[in-house]
Amino acid sequence: MADTIHWADVIAEDVLKKNCKHLVATGITPSGHIHIGNMREVVTADAVYKALIDKGADADFIYIADNYDPLRKVYPFLPESYAEHVGKPISEVPCPCGDCANYAEHFLKPFLEALRRLGINPKIYRADEMYRAGRYTEAIKTALVKRDSIAKILEEVSGKTVASDWNPFNPRCNECGKITTTKVTGFNLEAETVDYVCACGHTGTVPMAGGGKLTWRVDWPARWKVLGVTVEPFGKDHASKGGSYDTGKRIVREIYGHEPPYPVVYEWIMLGKQGAMSSSTGVVISISDMLGVVPPEVLRYLIIRTKPEKHIQFDPGQPLLTLVDEYERLRIQFKENDPSLGIFERRIYELSRATGICQSEIPFKQMVTIYQVARGDFDRILKIIKRSGISTEDEKCIRELADNVSEWLELYAPPFAKFNVKENVPVQVATLSELQKAFLSAFATVIETRGEISGEEYHMLVYSAKDEGSELNRQITEKLNTPVPQVDQKDLFKAIYTSILGQSSGPKAGWFLSSFEKEFLVKRFREASTYIPEKRG
């Protein structure tokens, strides 16, 4: 029975044992490109939230941008001039491109747009706004008063010694603006202020509301209490023994009198052979970049089909085609209510879909063929799709898929997936045998007399060449003036690709042939069947 229940539903059932209003939270520090490894967190949270809602729970879903965290270093993608900003909250560091309000928004903006495209719509919180609005003030007071108790928990759980001058609150220096170089020297609970000294030589007083932030290991449990978080996915680094979830559990219970959220620990997404994605190491493909290549529902499927505790191997090259094929097969089975589709697979599909996501009827691989036959011309793409009997009413979704394919072909497609339709008969047809040329001539004659031919019909027609009595077999016999010898089907497909592409292989023949106007095929096959190479003087 366990195999028939999706992991998101298992988590939802566990969470609902606690009868209360539920809040699913997720959050990332926008300190660099937010990559598809991070996407696992938000898609996991979204799947659990949807499972809770499906079970009738009273639940909300939020995303917290940790934009009050400091800039840790000058990352490889930044100019050296950013050295002066290291230690400042990233919401107060200049935008790298100059078009956004600050450094954090530069990375947050495309990420939030990517969430919208993925059909994920949490309520967005920004940490700097929450601190300035005083949401954390009571938690800061409690942490300052109970500093010694927190230090004891950190030492007991992490096994590390806490410095004598350590404090759970990092004031923001009024002079240099940094929060990593200050030390608390005192505080006033009534006035809600904190005194500090900074390494830059400045001393001063800041308000608890917006004048600094709690250190990460205290900020996280304080947030659970402040917002009432009951479920939160996080990476395995936070879940390690003595890690931030272990210290957070005790701090939230013993210091803030609140229960920790239900933990959903997830593994990393591994990028091809390069290993786990990480902004700091540069092994990264941003979510925005990936959405330029992969349809959003396929990215959701990539994460939803795998239990959070198992790592995901992701390769945007050839393996992407296999992933897309799997998803499209599942979509067709679901749509046709295929009785062989199990409860588990149905649930994977339901959670992979999302409101507002384009669901194109055209398979990704077919669009790879169509796009290249049309040479990227969108009007020609629409004409080919219409000819194949698929509705072109939703141009927005067709364009999205065409754009995905265009990017994929340029950035990740293996050489075998690319082709170029030759404007004239390729010289390579000179290598074709008499049988191959007779086949092309006969094929042209047969398709000329027919109406619209579907991809499947083209495919079956080629296979009919070996059947005695078939129209194509008769035509080949007539051209050769002798019964058709033993036919190797591969040679016939090779003749087709050679005459159009100048190469011996190509995309799936049915889709490929149905992408062309019939008149073009008839003309090209006839020219190829009678081709005589020019003699060089």
UniProtKB/TrEMBL annotation:
<keyword id="KW-0436">Ligase</keyword>
<feature type="short sequence motif" description="'HIGH' region">
    <location>
        <begin position="30"/>
        <end position="38"/>
    </location>
</feature>
<keyword id="KW-0067">ATP-binding</keyword>
<dbReference type="InterPro" id="IPR014729">
    <property type="entry name" value="Rossmann-like_a/b/a_fold"/>
</dbReference>
<dbReference type="InterPro" id="IPR001412">
    <property type="entry name" value="aa-tRNA-synth_I_CS"/>
</dbReference>
<feature type="short sequence motif" description="'KMSKS' region">
    <location>
        <begin position="276"/>
        <end position="280"/>
    </location>
</feature>
<keyword id="KW-0030">Aminoacyl-tRNA synthetase</keyword>
<dbReference type="InterPro" id="IPR008925">
    <property type="entry name" value="aa_tRNA-synth_I_cd-bd_sf"/>
</dbReference>
<comment type="similarity">
    <text>Belongs to the class-I aminoacyl-tRNA synthetase family.</text>
</comment>
<dbReference type="GO" id="GO:0004824">
    <property type="term" value="F:lysine-tRNA ligase activity"/>
</dbReference>
<protein>
    <recommendedName>
        <fullName>Lysine--tRNA ligase</fullName>
        <ecNumber>6.1.1.6</ecNumber>
    </recommendedName>
</protein>
<dbReference type="InterPro" id="IPR002904">
    <property type="entry name" value="Lys-tRNA-ligase"/>
</dbReference>
<dbReference type="InterPro" id="IPR042078">
    <property type="entry name" value="Lys-tRNA-ligase_SC_fold"/>
</dbReference>
<keyword id="KW-0963">Cytoplasm</keyword>
<dbReference type="Pfam" id="PF01921">
    <property type="entry name" value="tRNA-synt_1f"/>
</dbReference>
<dbReference type="InterPro" id="IPR020751">
    <property type="entry name" value="aa-tRNA-synth_I_codon-bd_sub2"/>
</dbReference>
<keyword id="KW-0648">Protein biosynthesis</keyword>
<keyword id="KW-0547">Nucleotide-binding</keyword>
